[in-house]
Amino acid sequence: MSVVEPASAQLMNGTALARETLDRTAERARKLLAETGVRPCLATVLVGDDPASVTYVAMKRRRSAAAGIESRHLPLPGRTTTAELVAAIRALSDDPTVHGILLQHPVPAHIDERAAFEAIAPAKDVDGVTMWSFAAMAFGRDDGFVSCTPGGIMRLLDAYGVDPAGKRAVVVGRSPILGKPMGMLLLARDATVTYCHSRTVDLSSVVATADILVAAVGRPEFIRGADIKPGAVVIDAGYNPGNVGDVDAAGAGERAGLLTPVPGGVGPMTIAVLLDQTVLAAERVAAVAASTAVTSTAAAAR
Ligand SMILES: Nc1nc(=O)c2c([nH]1)NC[C@@H]1CN(c3ccc(C(=O)N[C@@H](CCC(=O)O)C(=O)O)cc3)C=[N+]21
């Protein structure tokens, strides 16, 4: 009888990659400030006082400060109406000192979240939540902003040498800022993409076809290790209370080739992409200002 050693997945270190990414972001922020006097600024909007959201926003603001990005926080009461929230976000969209806007999801149920997201100017949508950004992702363009979690996952795949082209990618979940744009980014990189969701029949058999599996449903240990194709790349994008992912990590560890841990996988990369895109938004504004200055100088010289 032969003894088969259980294969053990290599963990994808999101904490380390996020640190490297944040270092480069901080360096660009420093350079932008030195060369143009512009300090990148991220506005964070939080409606209500959900403890998990309060923690996430605090984490984003801490990392901003460390990267030399100013953060301006707008806490709004839980009873804020859609109209009030839209007006507050429009004001940030119109404020030239703000380069990026993050509206923390979820907002209270009485608010039309889509209307609130659409009040974010596309040029400031560093969280990648607007319809404009979604379209840019779907067309594979690089002049928009990607949704932060899917964008962070693409960077993890790149860092570990995973080329999505021609691979079977299965995305479990179809939320507007996670599952759905995730599939778009994988499609733009030539993966063969399948979405699974609450109405999917025989989820296990679809999951078993995945060379790249992204779990983004928000249900603790929803994906069973036994369903995972041996050697697959497994990305656990679930955030559930208590730092438990959407994947049965022990089971997946025995079958996957590469696996993101929770914590320390996708989460830190989400924040790294948010801040990277905030500096990018500020760089784009500064570049436009510089080219306008050159043009007006040239016009004055004529
Ligand atoms: N408009 C919007 N954009 C978002 O990107 C967004 C959002 N709303 N709402 C909530 C989710 C959640 N999210 C996380 C970010 C980082 C970690 C993270 O860094 N987690 C650490 C663990 C942190 C801890 O120890 O608690 C880790 O995984 O290692 C987790 C979750 C962004 N989200």
TrEMBL record:
Its EC number is 1.5.1.5, 3.5.4.9. Keywords: Amino-acid biosynthesis, Histidine biosynthesis, Hydrolase, Methionine biosynthesis, Multifunctional enzyme, NADP, One-carbon metabolism, Oxidoreductase, Purine biosynthesis. SUPFAM superfamilies: Aminoacid dehydrogenase-like, N-terminal domain, NAD(P)-binding Rossmann-fold domains. Residues 147-284 form the Tetrahydrofolate dehydrogenase/cyclohydrolase NAD(P)-binding domain. The keyword Signal does not apply. Residues 12-127 form the Tetrahydrofolate dehydrogenase/cyclohydrolase catalytic domain. It catalyses: (6R)-5,10-methenyltetrahydrofolate + H2O = (6R)-10-formyltetrahydrofolate + H(+); (6R)-5,10-methylene-5,6,7,8-tetrahydrofolate + NADP(+) = (6R)-5,10-methenyltetrahydrofolate + NADPH. InterPro entries: Aminoacid_DH-like_N_sf (IPR046346), NAD(P)-bd_dom_sf (IPR036291), THF_DH/CycHdrlase (IPR000672), THF_DH/CycHdrlase_cat_dom (IPR020630), THF_DH/CycHdrlase_CS (IPR020867), THF_DH/CycHdrlase_NAD-bd_dom (IPR020631). Signal peptide: none annotated. Belongs to the tetrahydrofolate dehydrogenase/cyclohydrolase family. Homodimer. This is Bifunctional protein FolD. It comes from Streptacidiphilus cavernicola.
